[in-house]
Amino acid sequence: MKTTGYVNVSLNVNGRSYEVEAEPRTLLIDLLRNTLKIKSVRRGCEEGECGACTVLLNGKPIYSCLTLAVQVDGAEILTVEGLIKDEKMHSLMQAFIENYAVQCGYCTPGMILAAYYLLNTVENPTEEDIRRSVSGNLCRCTGYVNIIKAIKDTVRRKKRENQIKVTKGDAPYKV
Ligand code: FES
Ligand code: FES
Question: Which CATH architecture has domain 91-164?
Answer without folding.
Answer: Orthogonal Bundle (1.10)
